[in-house]
Amino acid sequence: MAKTKDSGFSYFLSKKVGKAIMDYKMLEDGDTVLVAVSGGKDSLTLLKILDERRKFVPIKYDLIAVYVDMGYNKKDVKFMRNFFKKNNYKYHIEKSLDVKNTPKEKINCFWCSWNRRKELFLAANKLGCTKLAMGHHKDDIVETFMLNLIFQGEISTMSPKQELFKGKITIIRPLSYVEKKETALFAKINKFKCLSCSCSMSGKTKRAKIAKIIKQCEEMTPGFKTNICRSLSRIKEEYLL
């Protein structure tokens, strides 16, 4: 019975991913997709679902899993290489700036994210990838919206699909309709051994604080995250300044 339930949930999550892909026209026949894999539950979920969907979707696309080595822990690199090989994923390890040779005062979430993304763009160009798939989910989209609203004074968030460099690279976020708790359950079902963030700032950021606020709002108003996402496509301009 448990196995049936597990299969049902995997199907349910794949359907959510498929809907996001269809709604935003994320994939095309012949695409080579770079999947950004950090080793966390979100990116591992994304990689597995995109790989499994290739068995039955009507288009053909190739996947290349890319892990960016930020220099935090050599064991993490070995772990990811073994994971890719064990699961027969085509993969590439991209070396970034070594965090150990970077002044501590320069290291923060923005520094890490910016350098990691730069390496992903370079890898996509080098490997001939047309799409760059990121593991951001609905919670990330809502958190980014709240962060920009409160700290930047603007209405914006992550886009499920975003063309960059005059269309040379397109970022896609197939987990846009998926919640964090759902990737956690998927990772548990598939018995993923996930890497944890090695940064000392982990859990101490503005994003972490906003996530707690969103959790409280969701407890008071079930569907809070869904309503925030819907509001971004249901803007009444006549009621804006």
Q: What would you note in describing this structure?
A:
With 241 residues, the protein is α/β, with parallel strands linked by helices. The protein has one domain (2-239): HUPs (Rossmann fold), CATH 3.40.50. The chain contains eight helices and six strands; from the N terminus they run αβαβαβαβαββααα. It has a six-stranded mixed sheet with strand order 3-2-1-4-6-5, with helices on both faces. α2 crosses α6. The radius of gyration is 18 Å and the shape is globular. 28% of the residues are buried. The mean pLDDT is 91.
Tally of separate helices:
8
| Computed CA radius of gyration, to the nearest angstrom | 18 Å
What is the mean predicted local confidence, pLDDT? 91
Helix-strand sequence? HEHEHEHEHEEHHH
What class do helices, strands and sheet pairing give?
alpha/beta
Low-pLDDT segments, ≥5 res: none
Major sheet: order of its strands? Answer: 3-2-1-4-6-5
- Please summarize the sheet with the most strands: 6 strands, mixed
CATH superfamily (homologous) name = HUPs
CATH class type: Alpha Beta
Tally of separate domains: 1
Span from first to last CA?
A: 55 Å
What's the CATH architecture name?
3-Layer(aba) Sandwich
Number of extended strands: 6
Question: Topology, please?
Answer:
Elements: H1 2-23, E1 32-36, H2 41-53, E2 62-69, H3 74-86, E3 91-95, H4 109-127, E4 131-133, H5 138-152, E5 161-164, E6 169-172, H6 180-189, H7 206-220, H8 224-231
Parallel strand pairs: 1-2, 1-4, 2-3, 4-6
Antiparallel strand pairs: 5-6
Helix pairs in contact: 2-6, 5-7, 5-8
